[in-house]
Amino acid sequence: MSTSTTDSRFRGHVAPRTALLRQTAERAIRYLDGLDERPVTATPAALARLAGLDEPLPDQPTDPNEVIALLDEIGSPATTATAGGRYFGFVIGGALPAAVAANWLTAAWDQDAGLVALAPGAAYLEEVARGWLLDLLGLPPDAAAGFVTGATMANFTALAAARHAVLARAGWNVEADGLFGAPPVTIVVGDEVHVSVLKALSLAGFGRERVVRVPVDGQGRMRAGALPALTGPTIVCAQAGNVNSGAFDPIADISARAHDHGAWVHVDSAFGLWAAAAPGRAHLAEGIAAADSWATDAHKWLNVPYDSGIVFVRDANALRAAMGVTAAYLVTSERREPGDCTPEMSRRARGVEVWAALRSLGRSGLAELIERCCRHASRFAAGLAAAGHEILNEVELNQVLVSFGSPEQTRQVIAALQADGTCWCGGTVWQGRTAMRISVSSWATTDEDVERSLAVMLDLAARVQRA
Ligand SMILES: *Cc1c(COP(=O)(O)O)cnc(C)c1O
Fold it and tell me: How many secondary structure helices (H) and strands (E) does the chain include?
């Protein structure tokens, strides 16, 4: 359509939109450029200013420029600088530039990625990303993938597929008839199971407490030899990448024992799965492909914006049986329907950011990202150990657990570090020991970030221990 035929009201609409989006991009860039200079957590003053947003809903419309200015001026300082290079709490990735940019463009597309007919390009890119991921991570090439919000939903989705498969083998149609009256399903977890798996089990109707817990070793790895005798419908939930120690369950051994008895093996590999993409760390994930389903996060180690997780299921039919919608009016294509692989029907095209991250990194870039984070973690561990602090885990991946003496001293160092604002680490209890946890999961972390953070940790620990 030529401009001359464009309705004047439409033109009037376009010009403000262009200015708004340009200025918003400028604001976002300024925010990101400022991350290195600001404390990692929001200051008390910034948090207090949030009260400025607690107002009655205006009766009249507001100029969008004004809305975004308000959001940036009050909202931006009230963020945690997890997009910067010195946030080491939980397991938190910072979004790669290519993934942020893809997120912006995808927001403009405003696609409903649940159906091919609605979002052909997004569905196509998800298929491309699925193929790349299965190859990079060494998973079965025909496995199905669902692009969900995170590892919690990926765990849930996989467990629903597992529930379908083990009950179908016992002659029960769980999608039609539910769990009331169904043959009992035995759920086996390691004693170090992540809380999100327990939550997913409860959502799937299995119960958080109705599980058989298998003892673990000093790194939190399930002892395969301690698996109970397996009979009847059974789902074994293993783990690749303990949220504290980073350790991997012996998945090949667990899978061999479980498969002998027809059990389904699910792996919670929220961040650990990415070790498979780095030649120097892939041995940690060896044998992981023997399982039946895998849950992972893209917003952790692939460094795409929230929210983004992926479920992989070897038996695509089991996933489709659990997640598919069969209403004929929705069947619009012979292709894989994204909505048949996830709990959601309508959803954003989060797979596009996964594609963009992978396309920009390439195989070697992803390997380097993973390797670099692990190297940073080793440097933290070495620097802390050299100063006499006890490292509580075998640092083979990106996680470090350190004690600064008594539980009280460790807690004091953590509190002092968080108040200092140079970097951020949280506390945890590891097999009865109070510890500080360092997780290096972001592309943005540089050698300088590590040295700067380490220096502050050592200084604060020395002060606490002198006191
Ligand atoms: C982070 C994590 C989860 C949960 O992932 P979300 O993206 O927060 O849903 C599950 N398992 C492990 C091991 C994790 O590290």
Answer: 13, 11
pLDDT mean over 136-165: 98
Look at the pTM and tell me if it is higher than 0.90: yes
Cα-trace Rg, the chain: 24
Residue pointed to by tokens 């002659």:
171
Query: Which residues contact residue 417 at a Cβ distance below 8 angstroms, ignoring those fewer than 6 apart?
Result: 423, 424, 425, 436, 456, 457, 460
pLDDT digits (tens, 9 = 90+) for 25-78: 999 999 999 999 999 999 999 999 999 999 999 999 999 999 999 999 999 999
Token look-up 């108040």 returns 419
Distance 143 CA to ligand 1 centre (A): 21
> 266 CB under 6 A from ligand 1?
no
152 in ligand 1 pocket by Cβ < 6 Å?
A: yes
| Helix runs in 35-112, H state only | 44-48, 64-70, 97-109
- Atom of ligand 1 lying closest to residue 269 CA: 13
- Mean pLDDT across the chain, nearest whole number? 95
Type of residue at 354 = V
Residue 14 has pLDDT above 90, yes or no: no
Q: Are 246 and 393 in contact (CB under 8 A)?
A: yes
Rounded CA-CA distance 369/354 in Å is 15
Mean pLDDT of 419-440: 98
Q: Which atom of ligand 1 is nearest to the CA of 155?
A: 10
CA of 324 to the centre of ligand 1 (A): 24
Listed residue (461, 457, 441, 455) closest to 90, CA to CA: 441
With the most atoms of ligand 1 within 8 angstroms of its CB, the residue from 243, 244, 440 to mutate is 243
pLDDT above 70 (res 335)? no
DSSP state of 216: B
> Residue whose CA is closest, atom 12 of ligand 1?
270
Q: Is 246 in the pocket of ligand 1 (CB under 6 A)?
A: no
| CB of 113 sitting under 6 A from ligand 1 | no
| pLDDT tens string 382-413 | 999 999 999 999 999 999 999 999 999 999 99
Peptide bond into 54 cis (omega under 30): no
* Three-class secondary structure of residue 266 per DSSP: strand
